[in-house]
Each structure stands twice: as C-alpha cells, then as structure tokens.
C-alpha cells in the first residue's frame, strides 16, 4: 500500500485529488493539508510514501516544503510530487532544485496523476511529458543554476551507467531500458542504485536534470 499526503490551498482541488487517490486500491490517503506549514508537519509526522504538493500555498510555499522534506541535507527524505497550474514557471524550477521527484500539471488526466504517484513512490520520478522539452530547455539555458554535482559523467560513471543515464534522459522506463540494452530489469535497477549516489541525486528525475545541466545529454531541439 502506497501512503499519500495531499496538500493544496484550494478546497475543490484538494477534495478532488483526495477522492481520486482514495479510490485506488493500492493507494492510502493518510493526510490532507490546506497550507504549507500543515503539509510539512503532517509529512514529518506521518512519513508518507509520497507527498503531493501544490506550488503556491500560504505559510510555506511548495518549494520550501519540498526542500525541507527532500533536500540534499535531509537524512530521511519524503518523496515529493509537485502539482502546478503553470506550464512554465520559476516555481517549478525551484522545486526541482529543492529535490522534487516529479511534477505534473493539475489538469493532467486522472490516470496520469495516479500513475505519477506510483512512479514517485517507486523512486522513478516523473515529468509531465507535454512539458519535458520546454522545461529542460528553460531549466538548463534560461536560468543560471548550480550543477547538481561538481563533476561530469566522464570518469564518474561506468560505460553501462552512462548508457542507462542517456536512456533515462529519453524518458525510458526500467523495462524499456532493459529491452534496449538486452539485460534483465533487475540489472538496470542495480546500476541505477549505484549511479544515483555518484551523481549526488536521489531520483531518476534528478539524474536526468543532472545530465542536462552537465551537458552529458544534448539539449532538445527547440
């Protein structure tokens, strides 16, 4: 059972998202918050498998809540899925820097949101596919960001880990990567488990961001 916390300051959105997730047999809604401070307190107390956070909330915004739950200095992070109404938004970039494992637009199809929660709980991370190219270009080019790590992949990753990173950047799942490389899915998972700490990241999404920031992967065409 995947334990989920929902935080949104809009009652209708909060109720709809709660009802959507509660209807799934493998998801358990363990907490609902209407502002950032309440979300932080509930997440730290309840330790959900996934915290679904709105970007703009009173008290503490979603970025600061994410940083306190999933930032690089957090010893026992809570995975965060950020939901936003903005397709290109500085808040989204800030959430990625703060350690979010994924983000979606609030108007995504219900089945996409449910799938994203499962992906984040499994440590896979997710980006709204309609925004991937635009977000990555904005995230890497428009803003002057600190690299996720101080080193490039050259000499840091094994050849196989680098291959997997490049396939991750194409949006491939573990199963798809395994088929592409003709290996077992368990082998892909083992490589990922070793690769993420080398990059100083905690999720597949952050690994992809690292790859673009460090120019290991070429930027998508505009």
UniProtKB/TrEMBL annotation:
One annotated GO biological process: phosphorelay signal transduction system
Domain of life, per lineage: Bacteria
GO molecular function annotation: DNA binding
All copies of domain HTH luxR-type, residue ranges: 150-215
The keyword Protein biosynthesis is annotated on this UniProt entry: no
Residue positions, PTM 4-aspartylphosphate: 54
PROSITE patterns listed in its UniProt record: HTH_LUXR_1, HTH_LUXR_2, RESPONSE_REGULATORY
Segments forming domain Response regulatory: 3-121
Keywords: DNA-binding, Phosphoprotein, Transcription, Transcription regulation
Keyword flag rRNA processing: no
Pfam families to which the protein is assigned, alphabetical: GerE, Response_reg
Protein's recorded name: Response regulator containing a CheY-like receiver domain and an HTH DNA-binding domain
Species for this entry: Sanguibacter keddieii (strain ATCC 51767 / DSM 10542 / NCFB 3025 / ST-74)
Biological classification of the source: Bacteria, Bacillati, Actinomycetota, Actinomycetes, Micrococcales
